[in-house]
Structure formats: C-alpha cells, structure tokens
Amino acid sequence: MTTPGQPIGRRTAIKMGLAATAAAVLPVRRAPAQAKEVKIALVVPLSGPWARQGILEQMGAEMAVEDVNKAGGVKALGGAKMKLVLYDTGDSAEKAKNAAQRLVAQEPDVVGAIGCWLSSFTLAATEVSERAELPWLTLSYSDLITGRGYKYVFQSAPTADAQATALLPRVVDLATQATKTKPTRVAFVGDNSASSVSFMKAIREHVAKDLGLTIVADEVYTPPLADATTLVQKIRSGRADFIVCQSTNVGDDKLLLDKFAERGITPSTIPLIGGGGHWCVPELMKIAGKEHLEGMIVGLANWPGKAVEDVEKRFIAKTGEPWFGHDSIFPYAHIWIFKEALERTGSLDRKKLGEMMHKIDLKDGPAKFFPDGRVKYEANGRRAGAELCIVQWQKGRPVAVHPESIAAAKAIWPKS
User: Fold this and answer.
1) Residue in 217, 241, 215 with CA at minimum distance from that of residue 231
2) What is the pLDDT of residues 318-347, one digit of tens each?
3) φ, ψ for residue 271 (rounded to 5)?
4) What domain count does the chain have?
5) Does any domain span residue 138?
6) Largest CA distance in the chain
7) Structure pTM?
8) Burial per residue of 291-324, b for 16 or more beta-carbon CB atoms within 10 angstroms, e otherwise
9) CB atoms near residue 160 (< 10 Å)
10) Each residue of 43-89: pLDDT tens digit?
11) Which of 108, 334, 341, 411 could form a disulfide with 356 if both were Cys (CB 3.0 to 4.6 A apart)?
C-alpha cells in the first residue's frame, strides 16, 4: 500500500500497469441512451369532411402509444416514453401542407410522423417532411406518394394501381362463379382526389381492357359532393353489370347510396364495389341504412384478422367503436413500427431512423397487423408484398372475405 507522496515501487507499478491494460481490453458496458420522451406526430384531418377518418386514426395511434409505454417504452433509449402530438390538416391539401410546416417549426424534436389519410393531403404534407428528413409513415394509396424518389416516406398500403389491378379480377371471378355469366359492363363514379385518380388511371389504361370490360359510365367530381342526382342518372343509364364507387368520405358515400336507392340500385340489385376504409365505418350504416349497404363489397388496404383479436377487443372496450377497422389498425401498427426501428437505432436522430426504416424486415411484432405478415420497405418506400383486402357488408357489419389469412366469411354475389 502507498500513501500520498510516497514513491511507487517496481512491483506496484507493474501491478498498476497490468490492471490498466486489463481495463483497456475489457468490453465497455454502456447504459442505454437516456431520453425523456419520444415524440411522434399524427397529422390527419380532425375537422372537415374527412374528420371521422382522422379521429379513427387518432384512436388507434393513442392506444398504441399507451401500449408501448405500458410495456416499458423504448428500451434502447432508457425506457423513454412515447408521446403523440396532433396536427389537424383541415379540409384541403394547402392546409395539410401548412400543418406539416407548423409541425416542423414547432416540434424540432419530433422523430417521426404518421399521416394524412387522404392521399392529396399526404402528397402535400410530405413535400415538407422530406425536406426536414422526417420519417413519415402513411396508409394513403396514391402511387405518386412513393413515386417521387423520396427517402423518408414509407407507404404501408398497397398502391391504388396495385389495388385496382387486384380488385377487379376478383370481382369478375366472383360474379362469374355466382351467375355463370361473365360481366362485361362496368360503371365508375369517384372524386378527383389523388388516390381515386391513381385507381382510375389503372382501370382506364389496362385493367378494364385486360378483363374484357366495357366502361359504360365514368363520372368524376370534386369533393365534397353537393348533389349526386346527375352522376347517378348517368351511371344508371349505362346499365352496368356492377358499379365501382371511388369516393373518399362518408358524406359523399351517403349521398351516392341514397341516390342509387332512389333509382332502384342497391348492392342486392346491381353490385356496388367501394374503395377505402370510409366505406366500413359504423355511422355509414346508421345514416345510409342497412338495406342500402348490405352486400356491398369494399376493397381496401388492411383489415384485422384473428391474429390481432386481443388488440381488437381492447380497442372496442376502450373506444366504444364496434370494430377495429382500416383507419385505426394502420396507425396502431405504425406506432409499433417506429418503436421497433427506434430500438434498433438507439437514437433520436431522424436520419438514422429513416435509414433503419429501410433496413427492417419484420415477420413478427407489428407484422401481424398486416394480412401478408411482413414489414419490409423497399427502396422507394413501398411496403414489400402489401396485399389488397376485401370486406363485404354482411348482416349489418363489414366482414373480411379476402385474403384467406384474415377471411371470416365467403363473399356473396347477388344471383338475380
């Protein structure tokens, strides 16, 4: 033992040198990075015609944040809790872009964002988020969203083109099997928002022709719809074998269904094919009537299956909603996807998080919230293998009929 000021002997010096060498080669155990909270933004319509969809997204995101935090937060960041910050896009693409600008200016520590439901809003908002290198997850459908060469935008839904290409062949097959006659005439009505434009572009350019379908009516309007009378008259005069409705909000859905019913058109007389989660919200049945919805077929980007029954039950108990649908399951999954990426980066750096989003390839955890069971984003930001889902209104509620991994019933086509 030495005391202060006492010369160090040779043996002591050797021991100290060996100890120092050992300390240098031993692995250093670093504590997880400490962060008080992890901010994720939800940028969706909370007012205007698309507010219901934004509210459903909010419900799903809030429940996911609670679940992440109850499970210990982001462990790689010292158990940091997630915090959701809300921004309202309002009722226009311009307002959506303004919301994204406010987000970037007011929340410099936000690490990721989710939004904006309507493709037109998402296109506008992500122009801002991309410049800020802010990773952005979306359920929006338009092909343009991930067709611009952006690095920080991740599209979990199959694109509108992919949905059109997958949906109509299944509809034609179903009709042929049920009636023993292949349909040849189809009518379309839809708005001019970005997802509808992408969907109809594919139909006009190749899908209808490939299936031997003649487009007997093709009506486009600017949402929100004020009066559907003229549109429906033109659709009815086309004498279509089935009608595809590419509206994007519940109010327009109701107007179309009401006018169709006035002209004797319901899903039980001339099959109606909808597109998007708004066709599967509970209030649509209340305001449009069960008889106007029963049998309607809806193509959309996601729907819960048996693998997530436990989450669905908790969501229903927590929110009072009758089911855990398209607009809530996406943000729930997106929060968990961000969480998984953060665990792998151990950092709140947006750029690192964006890079990790391109690297992750999950077949468990949040992957169970997609019918194809995988979360892997391609170089352009599209989710690899994203699969179309089809539900049908049966006995007063939307029921999954495709794909087999989530199907709870068989699709029914009117034989008359």
Assistant:
1) 217
2) 999 999 999 999 999 999 999 999 999 999
3) -55, 135
4) 2
5) yes
6) 107
7) 0.91
8) ebbbbbbbbbbbbbbeebeebbeebeeebebebb
9) 29
10) 999 999 999 999 999 999 999 999 999 999 999 999 999 999 999 99
11) 341
